[in-house]
């Protein structure tokens, strides 16, 4: 998965693996996000850094964050693709509207825009944020929101990032691979409402994966 390799390379460049402290947009509390070795590099560890309260709604960006406001929502299902998956936690983080995880200097291990959500019995979730820009250090990759999942005895692993329909960086090869996911495609179509907020739907199906590995496309 290309984004994992980006993180790996940057980890080596930055010789990074430390904890990073940021203000959580949802609780306005200072949160320390730890990172862990994946065996081939480092990744932010959502399960190591849980805030006190997590609901089915996550706010990755505070109001006033520059950019196009967006609400992403959907249902998270178990592997069968039919049964809502209750009790799973997602850790999400993204770049800002300028393509930076951190300012004034880029640091992929210190994102400003991040959050957690946990599903209830209906598996529903909602994310309030802004549309990310492509990474300033990887401008050829599609704009994305990282997604890591854990909970219910499941070790933390990666699922495909949120992508956005119309992003010219999504290749024909990507589209062929993702078409196998049918209704569980990570490519979200955004529609702007009269309130100026864009909205998009992504339903997810959680499948087994080794810790710190991606679920297969
Ligand atoms: Fe990224």
Keywords:
217 residues, mainly beta, Protocatechuate 3,4-Dioxygenase, subunit A, six-stranded mixed β-sheet, five-stranded mixed β-sheet, 2 helices, 14 strands, 35% strand, binds fe (ii) ion
Describe the fold and architecture.
The chain has 217 residues and is mainly β. It has one domain: Protocatechuate 3,4-Dioxygenase, subunit A (Sandwich). It is built from two helices and 14 strands. Strands 4, 5, 8, 12, 13 and 14 form a six-stranded mixed beta sheet that branches. It has a five-stranded mixed beta sheet with strand order 7-6-9-10-11, with no helix packed on it. It has a three-stranded antiparallel beta sheet with strand order 1-2-3. It is globular and about 45 Å long. About 6% of the residues have low confidence. Bound molecules: fe (ii) ion (FE2). Fe (ii) ion (FE2) binds next to loops. Fe (ii) ion binds next to loops.
CATH level 4 superfamily: Aromatic compound dioxygenase
Number of helices: 2
Q: Strand fraction band?
A: 25-35%
Silhouette: globular
Structural class: mainly beta
**Total domain count:** 1
Segments where pLDDT lies below 50 for 5+ residues? 4-17
Radius of gyration: 16 Å
Distance between the termini: 10 Å
In brief:
The chain is mainly beta and 217 residues long. The chain has helices at residues 2-14, 172-179, and strands at residues 20-23, 30-37, 42-45, 57-59, 69-77, 89-94, 113-118, 124-130, 145-151, 154-164, 187-188, 191-192, 198-201, 204-205. It binds fe (ii) ion.
How would the blueprint of this fold be written?
Layout: H1 2-14, E1 20-23, E2 30-37, E3 42-45, E4 57-59, E5 69-77, E6 89-94, E7 113-118, E8 124-130, E9 145-151, E10 154-164, H2 172-179, E11 187-188, E12 191-192, E13 198-201, E14 204-205
Parallel strand pairs: 4-8, 5-13, 5-14, 10-11
Antiparallel strand pairs: 1-2, 2-3, 5-8, 6-7, 6-9, 9-10, 12-13
The structure holds fe (ii) ion (FE2).
Residues 3, 135, 144, 146 line the site of fe (ii) ion.
């Amino acid at each position: 998965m290309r984004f994992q390799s980006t993180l790996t390379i940057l980890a080596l460049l930055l010789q990074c693996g430390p904890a990073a402290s940021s203000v959580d947009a949802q609780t306005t509390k200072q949160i320390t996000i730890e990172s862990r070795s994946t065996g081939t590099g480092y990744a932010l560890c959502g399960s190591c850094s849980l805030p006190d309260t997590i609901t089915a709604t996550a706010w990755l960006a505070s109001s006033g964050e520059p950019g196009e406001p967006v609400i992403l929502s959907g249902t998270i299902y178990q592997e069968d693709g039919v049964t809502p998956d209750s009790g799973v936690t997602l850790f999400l983080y993204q770049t800002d509207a300028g393509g930076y995880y951190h300012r004034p200097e880029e640091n992929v291990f210190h994102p400003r825009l991040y959050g957690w959500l946990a599903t209830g019995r209906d598996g529903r979730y909602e994310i309030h944020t802004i549309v990310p820009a492509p990474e300033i250090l990887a401008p050829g990759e599609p704009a994305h929101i990282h997604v890591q999942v854990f909970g219910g005895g499941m070790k933390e692993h990666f699922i495909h990032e949120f992508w956005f329909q119309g992003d010219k960086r999504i290749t024909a090869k990507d589209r062929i691979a993702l078409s196998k996911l049918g209704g569980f495609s990570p490519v979200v179509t955004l529609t702007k409402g009269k309130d100026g907020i864009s909205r998009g739907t992504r339903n997810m199906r959680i499948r087994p994966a080794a810790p710190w590995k991606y679920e297969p496309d």
